[in-house]
Design brief:
Blueprint lengths: L1 H26 L1 H21 L13 H12 L15 H15 L2 H13 L4 H11 L20 H29 L4 H16 L18 H16 L1 H10 L8 H24 L12 H18 L11 H13 L12 H15 L5 E3 L2 E3 L1 H29 L3 H12 L15 H27 L17
Antiparallel strand pairs: 1-2
Helix pairs in contact: 1-2, 2-3, 2-5, 2-17, 3-17, 4-8, 5-6, 6-17, 7-8, 7-9, 7-10, 8-9, 9-12, 11-12, 11-13, 11-14, 12-13, 13-16, 14-15, 15-16, 15-17, 16-17
Subcellular location: Cell membrane
GO molecular function, one term: monoatomic cation transmembrane transporter activity
GO biological process, one term: metal ion transport
């Protein structure tokens, strides 16, 4: 009888808690996603602070280092204030591997999954938000070709595509990396662990390294670097791209405009970035500028891929020419595809701004691409995303310059890397940074990762009908 009474007491309580969470998630999907993301960061921080997470000869991580690591892991950034290869125990490394997987699938997807778990269904607002994040135009007034986008009824299918793509791509990466690591003389189980680690970090665009020597044994190996590049590039495309390609792989005419812009922009940035590094680092003996042409090309393309959110590096980035650092700043700020494991303001945002400039130069009233007209509200979204990102980067840079008094180029580089969840560093981010500087970088990573979700939700919430128009007047621009 006592057990039955306890169950009766707990039943309504659990039901009320579930109902409140469901109501909050339905009414405020953006806040729900951000709260879930913040809670995950807090949980990982507490776990990283436990003695179980560090090696026996290492003291437990301090709060600020545990917080920084947790945010970097969950935000799939790759920056670190401790030696990731030596500081953490097997339990700590397991936290890293699980954390990048959780963070890699995206804040929005995680919120949707938890919403389904709690409410046993995906509510209309969550579906609107999911569709809006994968295609922000979905929540705007106007024609959207639903066959080429994520429809409300397709959100469940998108979540399945995410799970299958993550498992499949990472399994292929593991199989490709394992033989090469074995050839280096690494014992089988260590090689398997390293291949799993590299596969996870490349696809999630995290960039953490499992060994003390890092990429040094493979720094000139085309196979190993090529596989890492493949994983980063695939992770940075975005799950909506996979969703459309898997349904219409043999029919390019049916590909959505988002898919075409993402593929065209990603390949264009990959080639343009590689050519820029090839030219700018030519003759630089401190990097790869004095190697043979094959190595110069390999390293330039590798750096071009990693700058877009990959986070791996085969050379000391502080030794690059300042012009190359500036190019890296630009590529990191752009980032990868929408709803992907990459960060930044996204490739499609850049493409929209580029198309707007072309339309203005040609005197056309609207943007056009691949036989489609793009509405002006998409341009307003792109401008908002860029301005939001630039404001965050500027504010964080100013704070860190005031705190550390370090050179501007190094501080700006690491701030953009944090905002775009890239993980590359010139050496500014290290364990001896003041706690305030670590806190600023951690906040920059967090805000950079959740930014797209907040903007997508703001779009959905800002759809109000205006029954009047004000008098028109044109200010002077330029």
């Amino acid at each position: 009888m006592l057990e039955t009474a306890a169950q009766r007491d707990d039943g309504p309580l659990l039901a009320r808690v579930r109902d409140r969470i469901e109501a909050f998630a339905s009414q405020y999907p953006a806040r729900f996603a951000i709260v879930v993301f913040a809670v995950l960061n807090i949980i990982w921080t507490l776990l990283f602070m436990t003695p179980l997470a560090t090696r026996g000869d290492e003291p437990p991580a301090s709060f600020i280092d545990a917080l920084f690591t947790a945010v970097s892991v969950i935000c799939v950034t790759g920056l670190a204030t401790v030696d990731m290869a030596t500081h953490w125990s097997p339990f700590g490394n397991a936290l890293v591997l699980v954390g990048v997987q959780v963070g890699g699938i995206g804040v929005l997807t995680l919120a949707s999954l938890l919403g389904m778990t709690v409410a046993r269904r995906l509510g209309l607002k969550q579906r609107l938000m999911a569709a809006g994040d994968t295609n922000p135009s979905r929540v705007r007034k106007g024609v959207v070709k639903e066959g080429q986008a994520i429809r409300l009824g397709d959100v469940g299918g998108l979540l399945k595509i995410i799970a299958l793509s993550v498992l499949t791509i990472e399994a292929v990466l593991i199989l490709l990396l394992l033989p090469r690591i074995l050839l280096e003389g690494v014992p089988f189980w260590d090689a398997l662990y390293q291949s799993v680690y590299y596969a996870f970090m490349s696809f999630t665009n995290s960039g953490f390294i499992p060994t003390v020597e890092g990429l040094t044994p493979y720094a000139t190996d085309p196979w190993f670097l090529g596989v890492i590049m493949l994983g980063v590039f695939m992770g940075a495309l975005g799950f909506p791209v996979y969703f459309v390609l898997l349904r219409n792989l043999k029919h390019p005419r049916l590909w959505s405009l988002h898919v075409k812009l993402t593929l065209f922009g990603s390949l264009g940035l990959f080639v343009a970035g590689g050519l820029a590094y090839l030219v700018l680092e030519l003759g630089n003996a401190d990097s790869w500028g004095d190697a043979d042409f094959g190595q110069q090309l390999l390293q330039s393309l590798f750096m071009s891929t990693m700058s877009r959110s990959g986070g791996f590096a085969t050379h000391d980035l502080s030794e690059l020419n300042n012009s190359s650092l500036l190019v890296t700043d630009m590529l990191m700020f752009i980032g990868g595809g929408s709803a992907s494991t990459a960060g930044g303001v996204k490739v499609t945002t850049l493409m929209i701004l580029f198309l707007a400039a072309i339309a203005e130069a040609r005197g056309r009233k609207s943007m056009e691409a691949f036989g489609r007209r793009i509405p002006s509200d998409v341009l307003r979204l792109a401008v908002s995303v860029v301005l939001w990102g630039a404001t965050i980067v500027a504010a964080s840079t100013i704070l860190l310059l005031q705190i550390t008094h370090e050179p501007l180029d190094y501080v700006l580089f690491d701030v953009i890397s944090a905002f775009a969840t890239c993980g590359l560093s010139t050496g500014f981010t290290h364990g001896d940074l003041p706690w305030a500087a670590k806190a600023v970088l951690a906040a920059t990573m967090f805000v950079g990762r959740i930014g797209s979700v907040t903007l997508a939700a703001a779009l959905a919430a800002s759809q109000t009908q205006q029954l009047f128009t004000r008098p028109e007047e044109r200010p002077i621009v330029g």
